[in-house]
Automatic annotation (TrEMBL):
Family: Belongs to the bacterial ribosomal protein bS1 family.
InterPro entries (alphabetical): NA-bd_OB-fold, Ribos_protein_bS1-like, Ribosomal_protein_S1-like, S1_domain
Pfam families xref list: S1 (PF00575)
Coiled-coil ranges (or none): none
GO MF entry, a single one: mRNA binding
Keywords: Ribonucleoprotein, Ribosomal protein
Protein name: S1 motif domain-containing protein
GO biological process, one term: translation
């Protein structure tokens, strides 16, 4: 439990003995004063760094009891990625910005937006859209750019298949279908009527029987 706060760190009661968490061991992110991250009476998990029995001093660390975010930074971020950063410190050569707890990078003066006054943009607490230039997890360094954050990412050209032309039929006169061929059936020979047939036993007349 946190028993007292000082400018240089925080004292933690271990149950019969007090240990000191130096300000550099409070968190993986930058801390200007212990009151930014702790308060008296707060329960905390610590790791014992060293014990000096002669001087009766115990050195503790809070951040060592947590996972170091730099060990997995390359799994979460890649060069070229645009992120939101919060300015934490101003330096003569640029500014430092935090993109997450424990991960800070440098915005060099050469990576500011051309034609703008750095003082109007860079102040502690300002939130900026930044592009990641490089990541060096081993050296705990991160390069950030403000002027490149607004640049449009290059898009690879893709070849598209030409769309099939549509045949416009609206307004076109409908085509008349060819008339179907009519098959004419030859007329069957007519059957003589009963009146035209000769009576029973009567011989049909011929030219020889006709009177001269």
């Amino acid at each position: 439990m946190v028993s007292n706060l000082a400018n240089f760190g925080a004292f933690v009661d271990l149950g019969g003995a007090d240990g000191l968490v130096h300000i550099s061991q409070l968190a993986w992110s930058r801390v200007n004063h212990p009151s930014e991250v702790l308060h008296v009476g707060q329960e905390v998990e610590v790791q014992v760094l060293s014990v000096d029995k002669e001087k009766k001093k115990i050195a503790l660390s809070i951040k060592r009891a947590e996972v170091d975010p730099w060990t997995t930074v390359e799994q979460r971020y890649t060069p070229g990625q645009v992120v939101t950063g919060t300015v934490t410190k101003i330096a003569p050569f640029g500014a430092f910005a935090r993109i997450e707890d424990g991960i800070e990078g440098l915005i060099h003066l050469s990576e500011l937006t051309p034609g703008t006054d750095p003082k109007s943009i860079l102040h502690e607490g300002a939130q900026l859209q930044l592009r990641i230039l490089r990541i060096d997890a081993e050296r705990r360094r991160l390069g950030l750019s403000l002027r490149q954050a607004d640049e449009v990412d290059a898009i690879e050209e893709t070849t598209e298949m030409p769309a099939q032309e549509e045949v416009e039929t609206e307004g076109a006169a409908p085509q008349e279908s060819a008339p179907a061929a009519v098959l004419e059936t030859p007329a069957a020979p007519s059957t003589p009527s009963l009146e035209s047939l000769p009576a029973h036993g009567e011989q049909p007349s011929s030219k020889r029987d006709q009177a001269p």
